Each structure stands twice: as structure tokens, then as C-alpha cells.
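Hi R.,

Here's the input for the guanosine-5'-triphosphate complex you asked about:
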Amino acid sequence: EQQQRIRNFCILAHVDHGKSTLADRLLQTTKAVREDVLARQAQFLDDMDLERERGITIKLRSARMNYTDPRTGEAFILNLIDTPGHVDFGYEVSRSLAAVEGALLVVDASQGIQAQTLANVDLALKNGLEIIPVLNKIDLPGAQPEKVLQQMVDVIGIDPTLAVFASAKQGVGIDEILNRIVDFVPPPGGAETAPLQALVFDSYYDVYRGVIALIRVVNGKVRKGDRIKMMSNNKEYVVDAVGLFTPAQVEISGALGTGEVGFLSANVKSVGDAAVGDTMTTVNNSASCALPGYRKNKPVVFASMFPCDSSGDGFANLQVALSKFTLSDSSLTFEPIFSSALGNGFRCGFNGLLHMDIVQERLDREFGMDVLLSAPNVVYRVRTRSGDEHMISNPSDIDPAGIAEIQEPMAKVDIIAPQAYQGALEDLVRNRRSTMIDLQFLDGNRIRMLYRMPLSEIISDFHSNVLARTKGYGSMDFCMDGYEASELVRVDIALQSSIIDGFAFIEHVDFAASRGRALAQRLKDIIPRHMFKVAIQAKIGAKVIASESIAPFRKDVTAKCYGGDITRKQKLLKKQAAGKKRMKLVGTVSLPQEAFRKIIASD
Ligand code: GTP
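And here is the predicted structure with guanosine-5'-triphosphate in place:
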């Protein structure tokens, strides 16, 4: 029976350990991709420009391979599901793991286990996956596959007999990996005769077809013409195509059967309506319950977005751009806000800082929208004196007078680094209100440090600091860990005595004054000189905690153009105008985007 010969798996790896290279090799070996295509386009699975530039995988895709086991001559269907590797995309990783039975755990044999490796293993184990360890890059002179394997046995408890030593780059160990998949990844369960239950593990927007949902059929089957509904919202659609990824998208005339992985399109207009984690079933003979694990997307980081073009058009155009944007990225949320200092804009919710950067860049590239983003912040839970509880995502909305308690989101952070950097890392976390949970020695010279700390301390510049302090040898990962009450206050920043709402931030009382001072100092360095004196203040309530000022130009810039050489005068004015680009006029003061960025840097 066909179902018995299907193997669904994914590849888990820390950034740069060789996931894409291995995927390419598997596709090439099973002839799923023609050699010439592969030669022209290395690294097939990451298909967005931006991803390639940043060297990260954001959106998961899938590939179906036909594989004949050379030992028995038996034919198998191998479905590879690509997973996003970054911490920002944790929920998407976990959904794609729910769609498979096995995982190749790729570890660079010259680097060993990294923080993401452990986070990935946790997820794989939670999903009950069979894990096949792949020690990659054995061609490198510094590779120590035996030692790294021992580490994996000690730290993760994997079964060493399943491990494969490989070089994705040179094509070593690829056949062995394919055989391991056939032998150890279980075939999918489920019943073809049961009502349809299909898990949406990814969806994306296609300009020609609308939303394409990537599905794993868990029970039943689905074909073109079926009337289906999404179980989270009961919206109904008629399937207009189903098909496979070869890895190109190929439509099929038959049904996608139980255990199969493929795509489905049904004239869904927005990816939010075919959300990752949702279950599809047929309208007739519906499944009685949805597959477990559907979670409505909840942004964890918020920031305000303002068009740099502050005419009425700028705002209207941005609204149109954001609406279009969310057709293809439902994890971005936005609602209009008005800031007395910055004008009309939107309060946006993101999956994390990386997501925020990507949104800003895509708005610029794909929609030509130059936007300014305020400093990001986490979502606070506030209990009022009257006993109500609500979530607040904009620091300016926190009214200290009516508040009994502010709670902040906490996170568990996992850091792996050479022991030589232990002191530098301890120094880093000390200033971040952290508590140590555990310290482990991984092998002769590497340590694993586990901490609990407020999420707000991580979304600032924590990751880049971990890298800087370990000269790039450290890695980190984190997961959310509930809410906790804390003594938090709002720090306001005022320019020329009026408060700039986009600059307000929430801080622990013990750090508020020093961070307020540091920020005022940084703004002093960043804000250009004006024709008048610029006064910067940091305040907690009515109390001024820091005060800086920027002296005006001593003379008019054009004053030194004695004699009135007009071309020189024009040159100077032009230079001034160019310097104003990407500035936002706040009251009478021009602020560069950098000023907003600097708010989150805490060191
Ligand atoms: P992300 O997509 O950023 O998560 O990275 P990845 O895990 O997909 O890694 P990728 O396949 O892009 O490989 C990272 C780098 O390692 C590339 O420069 C590859 O050429 C190189 N690489 C991959 N496999 C091997 C290998 O077996 N040996 C050697 N020497 N280099 C390899």
C-alpha cells in the first residue's frame, strides 16, 4: 500500500551548519532537480531575495522525491519539508514538525552543538519525531565528528547508531542518509476512509493564484472540486487545485491522499484565512475536531510606524501598502494611531526584531515606502486599581496613576559558548535582570548557560552582544516563559520640553534613571545641530532625570561664503538638504531614523 512507502521528514540545523546544501544534495541524488537548474541556482529551498541576502530561511517550502532503495529495489516517496531556522519563527517551526515523522539533525562537525541545535531537538522530541543525527562538514580539516557525536549522546541523549558522518558539500554520506530515512522514519498513520483532516503547515501568497496552502493530509483525502472549510473560522471554499512540490509546484488531477504532503489552492484571498496551524476539512462529512495545536498569531514585539513623507498621501499610501503586505504575511498586525509629535501612523505587531527589520525592508523594496519605526517594545500586562487586567503594547498608553501592577513577559535564554568567554557573558547578563537556571559543561572547553530574564532585555541588542562578546563563537536561543510582576516605570523623552510619544519606554526602577541619562546623551550625539539650541530631557512622571542640550550653529552656515560666491552658496545648501534625508521633523527639531534605533541599544 502506498501509505506504507511514504516518509515525511524535515531538516533541523543551526544557522550555517549546512541545511540548504544537504537539501540540494538529497534533491540532486533523487533526481528531483535537474542538474542544470541546480547549477544555476544554488540553494533551492530559500527563494526570497531577502532571505538569500541575509542568509536565513524564513518561509518553509517542501519537496517530494522519488527514491528507489538500491538494497531492495522498493520505491519510496520522500517528502522533505523545509523549516525556518530562526528563533523569531518558533511557531512556524513547530507546525512544520507536526507535519513530519522524522528529522535529520544536522550539526557542523567542526563546530559542535549550538543553542539552536538544542532548541530544535526539544521541539523534535515534543513532536515525537525520529531523530537521525547528521555530522556534516567532515571534509573540513577541523572536523571532529566522533567527538561531536559523543557530545550529542551526552547532552541530547541521541542514539549514536543512527548517526551518519557526511559532507553535504562533497556529497559524502548522502546515500546512507536516504537509507536511514527509509529504515527509521515511520510511515504516516491516519486512515484514508476517515473524514478529511489536513494540517496547514505553511501558506503563502501567489500573485496568480491567491493563497497557496501547504498541507499535510492527516486523515482522508482531498481533490480539486471538493468543498472544504477552515476549522478555526468555518469559512468555506471550493478547492481549485491540489498538487505536489517537485520542488516546483506541479498540479495533479487525482487526490492528495492520507499521509501526503502537497499544496492546495481554493481562491483564499489572504494568508490570514489559511493560517499556519489551522485544520482543513470537507464541508460534507466533516471531521469532528481540529488537529491539535492551532494558535492564533500573537505578535511579541510592537513598534509605531510613520511614513517619512508626512503629507496626507504618505499615510494613505502606507495604509494601502500594509493592507497588501498582510495578504502575504499574516503575522504582521497594524492599527492606526496618532502621535502628537510624529503625526499619523500605525502601531504594528511583529514576531520579533528580525521580522520587524524584514518588514521595514520589504516595504521599502516592494512598495517603495520609506518608513520610520519607533523603538520596539514588548507587550505588558497591566492590573488597574479597580482590578481590571489588560495588555498594553504602547508604553504611551500606560497611565501610572491608575495602575496597581505592571507585569512583563519573561523568557528563558540558552547560551552556548567556549568557556573562555564565560566571564564576558556573565558580565553581559548581570545588567539584564537575569537569574541563572543552570550552567553545564559540554566538553573540554564549552559551556551552556541557562538564564531567565525579561523579554525586553533580549529584544534590545542582546543577541548582537552575545556574538560580540564571544567573537562570534557563542550562540543563543530563547523561548517565552510567562509573565511576572515587576517594578516598572515609564521614562519619557522630551525635546524642547514637549514629550515625544514614540520615544517613551518602560524600564525597571533600578535602571530607569541610568538608561534615561544614557539615552539623552546618545540623542545629543546623534541629533544634528540646529539654528537654535535643542534641549533634550528624560523624565519619569514630572521628575526630570536627565537633561542635555545641543548648542546651535555658531554662525549661519552660509556666512563664511564671504563675497557672495553664489555657486558655493548653492553647493552648501544642497549639502544641507542631502543631510536631511531620512529625517523626521518633530516639532521644530529634525530627528534622524538612527535616533529611534538607538533607543533600544542599552550598552
Ligand atoms: P541557513 O540557510 O542560513 O540556515 O544555513 P544552512 O544551514 O542552510 O547552511 P548552508 O547549506 O547555507 O551552508 C552554510 C555554509 O556551509 C555554506 O557556505 C556551505 O557551502 C557550507 N557547507 C555546507 N555543507 C558543507 C560541507 O559538508 N562541507 C563544507 N566544507 N562546507 C559545507
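One thing worth noting: The two ends are 61 Å apart (CA to CA).

Cheers,
M.
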